[in-house]
Design a protein that fits this description.
Radius of gyration: 20 Å
Shape: globular
CATH topology: Rossmann fold
Structural class: alpha/beta
Strand order of the largest sheet: 3-2-1-4-5-7-6
Oligomer: single chain
Length: 333
C-alpha cells in the first residue's frame, strides 16, 4: 500500500511539472527553465520500482511528450554554452565554464573503463579502437572531446548530427586545437542515410537524444545492426525506474542483432543506465519476441537471465557499477 501511495505521489508530481514546462514560451536557459527541470530531475532520481508500461495510457502519452521537451531543453542549453565557449581563442582550455563539465569527466572515465573491459579479448595488451563514431553529438560534443583528450589519444572521432548548425558550433570549439582538429570530424547527415561508412567504426556511441521516441530509437538501432561491422561495439543509454519519465527505456529485445554485454543501473544522483552491446557476427534469421526473453528482477535492481539465449548480463555488483555514472544530460545537480 505504501509503494502504491509513493508511486501515485510521484506520478502526480511529474504531471504537475509537465503542465508547467509545457506552458513555457521558450525552453532556452533561463531562471524559470532551469528551476523547473532541476526540480523534475530531483523528483525522478530517487530509486523507484515504477513500471511505465503499467501506467494509464494518458500518463504514458504525457511521458512521451515530456521526454521530447527534456531533449529540446538540453539542446538549447548545449547551444548556449557552445556559443559562449567559442568566444575564447582556445575554447578547449575553458571547458569548465560549462557547469556540468566535471560530470563529463567522470562519465568518460567510466565509459572508457567499461569499453576497455569489453573491447579487446587480448588479456595481455590493451587495444584501443582506431575509429569511433558518435551519433547525435550536438553543438557541445563533450563526451567525444573528453574521450579524445584524456583516454583515446590516437583514435579518430567521427561525430554525426542531423543539424548542420549544431556541427558548425561544435567544429568551432575543436578547430583551434592542433591535435583534435586532426582527429575529430563532423558529419551533417541523417544517420539513417549512412550505410557503408558504419562498417569502418570499431565503436559506435548512440547519444540519448537520438530517438527520443522509443520506436524511432529502435529504428536507428536496427539500422546500426544492419550496417555496423560484425564484432563492433555499441554503447547507448537507457533509463530505469522513475528516470524513464526523462528518457525512453531500451529493452534487451530492442537490440536485435547485438549481443548485450552489460546493463548498468545507477543507484545515485544520475539519470541513465548504460548499455554495452556487440554486433553479432551473423544476424538472426528471425525476430526475437520479447516474450522469449525471460529475466528476473532481483531486489537490488539487477537483471539476471533465467533462460535467455541472446543476453549475457554482468551481475549488478560489478565493481564498475559502484562508480558514479553521470549522464550527459546537463540537468542533474
Amino acid at each position: 500500500m505504501g509503494s502504491f501511495h509513493q508511486e501515485s505521489t510521484l506520478v502526480a508530481k511529474v504531471c504537475e511539472l509537465y503542465a508547467k514546462i509545457s506552458k513555457l514560451e521558450s525552453l532556452k536557459p533561463s531562471e524559470e527553465v532551469n528551476r523547473l527541470f532541476t526540480e523534475l530531475v530531483e523528483t525522478c532520481i530517487p530509486p523507484s520500482s515504477i513500471n511505465m508500461s503499467t501506467l494509464p495510457e494518458n500518463i504514458q502519452e504525457k511521458t512521451s511528450k515530456l521526454i521530447k521537451l527534456c531533449g529540446e531543453a538540453e539542446g538549447h542549453m548545449e547551444a548556449h554554452f557552445s556559443t559562449l565557449l567559442a568566444t575564447f581563442p582556445n575554447p578547449l582550455h575553458h571547458l569548465d565554464v560549462f557547469p556540468y563539465y566535471s560530470n563529463y569527466l567522470k562519465l568518460s572515465q567510466l565509459e572508457f573503463d567499461i569499453l576497455t573491459g569489453h573491447y579487446s579479448t587480448d588479456q595481455h595488451h590493451a587495444v584501443a579502437p582506431k575509429r569511433v563514431a558518435f551519433i547525435g553529438s550536438g553543438p557541445l560534443p563533450l563526451t567525444s572531446i573528453v574521450l579524445a583528450t584524456h583516454h583515446l589519444k590516437n583514435t579518430e572521432f567521427h561525430n554525426y548530427d542531423i543539424d548542420d548548425s549544431a556541427n558548425s558550433l561544435a567544429s568551432r570549439l575543436v578547430s583551434p586545437d592542433p591535435d583534435l582538429s586532426q582527429r575529430m570530424f563532423f558529419h551533417s547527415t541523417d544517420i539513417m542515410d549512412v550505410k557503408d561508412d558504419l562498417k569502418e567504426y570499431d565503436v559506435v556511441f548512440l547519444a540519448a537524444l537520438v530517438g527520443m521516441d522509443i520506436n524511432d530509437k529502435v529504428k536507428v538501432i536496427q539500422h546500426l545492426a544492419r550496417y555496423m561491422a560484425p564484432g563492433a561495439v555499441l554503447m547507448l543509454r537507457s533509463a530505469h525506474g522513475a528516470r524513464a519519465f526523462l528518457y525512453p527505456v531500451v529493452e534487451p529485445n530492442d537490440l536485435q542483432g547485438f549481443e548485450v554485454l552489460s546493463i548498468f543501473h545507477p543507484q545515485d544522483e544520475v539519470i541513465n543506465s548504460v548499455v554495452i552491446a556487440r554486433k553479432e557476427y551473423s544476424l538472426l534469421p528471425f525476430e526475437v519476441d520479447h516474450q522469449d526473453h525471460d529475466h528476473k528482477l532481483i531486489g537490488n535492481g539487477s537483471i539476471l537471465p533465467l533462460s535467455c539465449k541472446y543476453c549475457d548480463f554482468q551481475a549488478y555488483n560489478n565493481p564498475l557499477n559502484q562508480m558514479n555514472i553521470i549522464e550527459d544530460l546537463g540537468m542533474d545537480e
